[in-house]
Amino acid sequence: MSADLLQVLASAGKGKGTRSLLRVIILALIAGAAVSSRLFSVIRFESIIHEFDPWFNFRATKYLVANGFYKFWDWFDDRTWHPLGRVTGGTLYPGLMVTSGVIYHALRALTIPVDIRNICVLLAPGFSGLTAIAAYLLTNEMTPSSSAGLLAALFVGIAPGYISRSVAGSYDNEAIAIFLLVFTFYLWIKALKQGSMLWGALCALFYGYMVASWGGYAFITCLLPLHAFVLICMGRYSTRLYVAYTTWYALGTLASMQIPFVGFLPVKTSEHMPALGIFGFLQLLAFLDYVRSAIPSRQFQTFLWLFAGATFGLGLLGLVIATSAGFIAPWSGRFYSLWDTGYAKIHIPIIASVSEHQPTAWPAFFFDLNMLIWLFPVGVYLCFQELADEHVFIVVYALFGSYFAGVMVRLMLTLTPVVCVAAAIAVSTLLDAYLNAKSPNPEEVQALESSEGKRAVKSGLRSTSKPVVGVYGLWGKGMVVGAMVVYLLVFVLHCTWVTSNAYSSPSVVLASRLPDGSQHIIDDYREAYQWLRQNTREDAKIMSWWDYGYQIGGMADRPTLVDNNTWNNTHIATVGKAMSSREEVSYPIMRQHEVDYVLVVFGGLLGYSGDDINKFLWMVRIAEGIWPDEVSERAFFTPRGEYRVDAEATETMKNSLMYKMSYYNYNNLFPPGQAVDRMRGARLPEVGPTLNTLEEAFTSENWIIRIYKVKDLDNLGRDHASAAAFDRGHKKKKATKKRGPRLLRVE
Amino acid sequence: MRSLISFFVFLFAAAVSALSTTGNRLLVILDDVVEKANYSKFLADLESRGFQLSFETPKSESLALFHLGERSYDHIIFFPTKTKGLGPKLTPNLLVDFLNAKGNLLVTLSSGVPTPNSLVSLLAELDIQLPAERTGLVVDHFNYDASSAADLHDVLLLPPPGPIRPDVKDFFAAGAPKDSLLAFPRGVGAVLGPGELLTPILRAPRTAYSYNPKEQAETVDELFAAGEQLALVSAFQARNSARLTLVGSAEMLQDKWFDAEVSQPSSGAGKKAAAAGKTFNREFAKRLSGWTFNEIGVLRVNWIEHHLDEPGAANQSNPAIYRIKKDVKYTISLSEHAWTAWTPFTLPSASDALQLEFSMLSPFHRLPLQPDPALSTDDAAAYSAAFRLPDQHGIFNFRVSYKRPLLSNVEEKNTVSVRHMAHDEWPRSYVISGAWPWIAGIGVTVAGWLAFCALWMFSAPVPAPGGAAGAARAETKKTQ
């Protein structure tokens, strides 16, 4: 009975049409799983934009939807980087906003009125479903086994390495860029395999979309030429390669130059030179190939190859000269830090200060990829086994992806797709081998072996002479398949757990647990931003560390001095200097920049680690980079080299504006002499700091956000210290008691 | 009809109350209300100019400078009081708050009466130092009134004070008859700090000095100050244009010194009293109180306008955003209050200039504003400047900062954004002659490609006899 049922089921899966139907259903389910596993944050909190950068993207999208594309293109944003302003339309990757805008208008045209915020929140999950399909297509190009593609789709769909940047609300460029990355690679493989101009043009089209979406497009720009170069070195030059590459390069470069932010970079900067070099090299090869086919002479052929090598070398030399002469911009700091992880820390503190630019810690690999990380080498090995053109691509991608992921946390994202593809190839090969119910016919095997010779059969153990053992035994197969299934289930568990616990926090809202286990929401950020929105002038300039610039712009709708688009190091250093100097030094800076309010994040009361005192050393370092004479990092450490905030803190530390703003009035919360900073576990001095040039305007419920108003110049022409002393009731010392020559009025 | 009457009543009320630009509620602080008889002429002058006087003693219960956070009075006059302090209603902090709320103070001192602590600390905050022990007396052995203080030499006779700098408007001596004299009886001199908010109106003569008559009656060993460093009447104007005037001698404002007969000492054995006549005190008191209570020397910005100055441009007023490298014009209209009416403001001297700054972090332009008669009216003068915006985008300020002694501060800031060139505002490529080779290159490439296609399509290999021969030759090769 059950056997019959199995038979029916098996036969149902046999037909070609049924199989494709099943495949479509499975893919749809995978896409659904990918989307739904990213919805934790929406369900737990609300439909809200997360973190920092997404707030800018959201604000830009709103501007786009409200003002139309051309206004967006020419957008001069006078509410950021006060007073410099930002040519926003020309300094962003518009792909994300335009995508959301198109979806918004398409839905409106279909008379489905959806709030633009919901589109932005759900864009990343939506595109993760597409990524799963793209991964399926890419993997299908690698192996004839269709199950590999489905597995790859599943892996990409739920791998935490990708989820970390694409949960609902994480409205960042990466949300669509990873789909574009994978899909561009698929199209490249397709073009390369078929030598098709159409696929090459499609590849260039999606490459253009990728350039419009994410700065990480340089990864494609370097990986495709590298793949081509490796193929050429392996002696696999072919007209297919020529057609695919030249089509992609010519059209793709033109497309990328249409983005104002990219402009002429593809012909000017070192990052883009490999692509150009390979393009030229391919032309040369094609020419030589033609000559070789026309003149069949062995010596001539070697000569030509030598000629090609010499030209390549000359080209490289010319590139070096052009770079050193300044025609081509040298590698930027961010790229140097890819080769030398210590470079940024010494030379460009602003890059090193960004948390996502830190080198990856090794547990992060397991955390983000789980079992895929050990299946990944197996997949790469299997690619080596076949080593067709497309497998070379996987090998090259795997090598470079791993390197970059090891250098920078953020680039884990670019590694994830290849890991998923390689792991899927490995798993599907394994499952194909072990799920194959067919065992070889003993007679046939016997015949095969006897044709090889009798020796082996005679000398072996008795058990080995029986064919239905080892690999073919049901027991062994069951063991392997069972183990694999357990691994896969654990993988799903792990992914869900990581997504739910590590990557679904909006970081705008903090969640904590009360003693009874219920969830308690700490909503200080939004409380403070709402206060700013309701209680300050519309053009009140807010000074804060750059981390909060986008949020203030997005949530409080107030102009900021610096924000997360860290394009102007000097301006950020100015803010760093204002924060790390004495009040007397900071005040003129704040006046010059027309600052009305200063916002600091303080975690001392709650034990919140991401506060400004913990980031303070970066402000000092960045300021020191510009004003080494005025700001010194050493002065913030005690003679014993400790970074302290208690009574032992250095005078520079205690007098710095940041310290004063963080701990102003904090003593009043505690009984005298018992003020404690819970974050740093430090007992604070009995007398708190005094502020003369600022006055406290707002402190949020849990003291996470503190906002200070910058006082105007004293109406009576006094300096702020004496004016504040007078307000506190201190009498002015009589000037006549002063020693020294009397100051005479001369007018 | 009724509305017409009420309109005239309103006009009249406006005319009366418009004498001071701040308001007409004037509080007079006296030790005893009967003392006001000494100042009757001065107070009557004030009342005739439209001020509503209220008299209070420092101890009064009903005295309150603020009611519900608003000023209860617009101006205060302090006459000398014998109390050591002024009580809780007039603490220095309250007086500072009063100044910060744009209230004006006229403080008078007297050498006979110790200055109250409250006023001493208030003046110390303004960087005005009074002699120690809260009393002092200014004497001058060369410029005294020979008729009333022939022995003590403590009634100083001075010419009305001119402007402290040549480029400052003359408020106090203008139009005074020649040889007119100011009497400064038994006054206290103050020493002013170096701040720019302080202006000495009346300085002691070079030969005057200040001493403490109680302790230094015999010898003056340590001099508080002497000569022109002693300010007898000084003015302070806060950043918000609130004014405080310190008059060293309250007696100067008393009836008996208004139009009193004075005579200067004979400076030499043979000569008679050099000059004798009536004092200029009454007119000086009027001008001094008029300045303090915002009747003169008050500047008003009527309007500010800036717009694109391009031919053919839509002349929108005060746009929030401009583009780089555009021509703009900025105009500011200023009036000056002269006792009863607003008059067009003219610069006090040719060496003075009203300047416009166009600044982001630092000024990109600093231009003199020129009078613009076309936009000026009977009560307002317009000044304008036209210039080209810098080639730098950002958030800029049109800034006029005109701060001169004795004139109220003009500090105007209009923020505009200056944007970059939009994508369609650049010259088209065919306009730029340098681009012609490239455009020609594109054309040649397109034409060449089309020609190549045509050539390719129409030059398919024809199975000509030559081809057949070739095939035959191959055949022969193979067979060989």
UniProtKB/TrEMBL annotation, chain A:
Disordered, as annotated region: 725-747
Residue runs in coiled coils: none
Lipid bilayer topology: Multi-pass membrane protein
CC terms in the record's Gene Ontology section: oligosaccharyltransferase complex
EC number, UniProt record: 2.4.99.18
Keywords: Endoplasmic reticulum, Glycoprotein, Glycosyltransferase, Magnesium, Manganese, Membrane, Metal-binding, Transferase, Transmembrane, Transmembrane helix
Transferase among keywords: yes
Catalytic activity: a di-trans,poly-cis-dolichyl diphosphooligosaccharide + L-asparaginyl-[protein] = N(4)-(oligosaccharide-(1->4)-N-acetyl-beta-D-glucosaminyl-(1->4)-N-acetyl-beta-D-glucosaminyl)-L-asparaginyl-[protein] + a di-trans,poly-cis-dolichyl diphosphate + H(+)
GO molecular function per UniProt: dolichyl-diphosphooligosaccharide-protein glycotransferase activity; metal ion binding
Swiss-Prot/TrEMBL cofactor(s): Mn(2+); Mg(2+)
InterPro entries: Oligo_trans_STT3, STT3-PglB_core, STT3_N
GO biological processes: post-translational protein modification; protein N-linked glycosylation via asparagine
Oligosaccharyl transferase STT3 N-terminal domain segment(s): 22-422
Compartments, record wording: Endoplasmic reticulum membrane
Cited function: Catalytic subunit of the oligosaccharyl transferase (OST) complex that catalyzes the initial transfer of a defined glycan (Glc(3)Man(9)GlcNAc(2) in eukaryotes) from the lipid carrier dolichol-pyrophosphate to an asparagine residue within an Asn-X-Ser/Thr consensus motif in nascent polypeptide chains, the first step in protein N-glycosylation. N-glycosylation occurs cotranslationally and the complex associates with the Sec61 complex at the channel-forming translocon complex that mediates protein translocation across the endoplasmic reticulum (ER).
Record family assignment: Belongs to the STT3 family.
Protein's name in the database: Dolichyl-diphosphooligosaccharide--protein glycosyltransferase subunit STT3
UniProtKB/TrEMBL annotation, chain B:
Keyword hit for Endoplasmic reticulum: yes
A UniProt-annotated Pfam family: OST48_N
Annotated pathway: Protein modification; protein glycosylation
Species of the source: Thermothielavioides terrestris (strain ATCC 38088 / NRRL 8126) (Thielavia terrestris)
PANTHER family: DOLICHYL-DIPHOSPHOOLIGOSACCHARIDE--PROTEIN GLYCOSYLTRANSFERASE 48 KDA SUBUNIT (PTHR10830)
Residue span, OST48 N-terminal domain: 25-292
Assembly and binders: Component of the oligosaccharyltransferase (OST) complex.
Record-given protein name: Dolichyl-diphosphooligosaccharide--protein glycosyltransferase subunit WBP1
Signal peptide residues on this chain, from the entry's feature table: 1-18
